[in-house]
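Hey, I'm writing a tutorial for new members on how sequence and structure tokens pair up, and I'd like a real worked example in the thread rather than a made-up one. If someone can provide the structure for the chain below, I'll link this post from the tutorial.
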Amino acid sequence: MRDPRFRKLADLLVDYSTRVTKGEKVLIEASSIPSEMVGTLIEKVSENGGLPFVEIKDQRVQRSLYLSATEEQMKLLGGFEMVRMKAMDVYIGVRGLDNSTETADVPQDRMRIYLDHVAHPVHFEERVNNTKWCVLRWPTPSMAQAAGMSTEAFEDFYFEVCTMDYAKMAQAQKPLKTRLENCREVRISGPGDTDISFRIDDIPVIPCVGEYNIPDGETFTAPVKDSVNGVIHFNTPTIYQGQPFDDIQLVFKDGKCVEATGSDTEGVNRILDTDEGARYVGEFSIAYNPHIRKAMRDILFDEKIAGSIHFTPGQAYEMADNGNRSNVHWDMVLIQRSDTGGGELYFDGELVRKDGLFITDDLQALNPEQLLS
């Protein structure tokens, strides 16, 4: 018997997140998730009149593919996947992670071949910019362990946060979008050395309230490329290309990261030296999902933590474009709640959020107590 929560999640993904309509071609890309959930998505897409297509992937198989990557092989693979992606109207990616560090031992040069010829053109460019898309994780014992929860408790948490009232969240964030659209300069301050400022004028502002990611809860834009100056110290553990990092601090001058340190300083700099754009920032986002309170080294959850912001070295989204291009897109999270050290967020010199809580009247509907009421 199928878990009834599968259908509730499928309804959200197909009816709300991607709004599948009759005749639309939908690619369902599934990795390490129950076949019953894939079947439920196929049925729901078909009920809406969509045409479902399915790709099943496996994390360990992907690792083997990356290890054997050659230029010729990845160019061909990227070409095949590009033809298919261009034919799609909708993309739904449901990704289970049995081991979040599965690709930690893939050499950087091999991973770069895959990024250059498959991931970047097919997903960062074609899929992100030319389809209706939504990406989400699937709950696994390894995720539960990272969250410090039992498998059963984590599954309950997962379905609660993934199927929350995103329509209410969408309404509550409208004043934040308006403020950001009328803001010229943002300043972030916090414990230690964190004090960084940048301009966002004339960059589009994009609310994410259950459409692109599940779970969701952020509003993002991008800094003017050469405007970032100061220091930011991230208090949230991260993982990138299968490698874990902690305690990352970045120093910026005229938009460029000129100094980077962390638990693995060499590793951080190796990633930031991938290409010229990796040392510039492609995204700035303010997060407010009331259910997500702590980090678990899974960016689809961690970047939505209530009371946090994230800063992203690398590729800018074309929908909020500052012109930065890179094969890297590394979301780094700073939680500013009082229980993690606090911090302040300023728009054009006005304090709008302190210690993770919005303090202006127009933004208080985004605080956890209001979103959960």
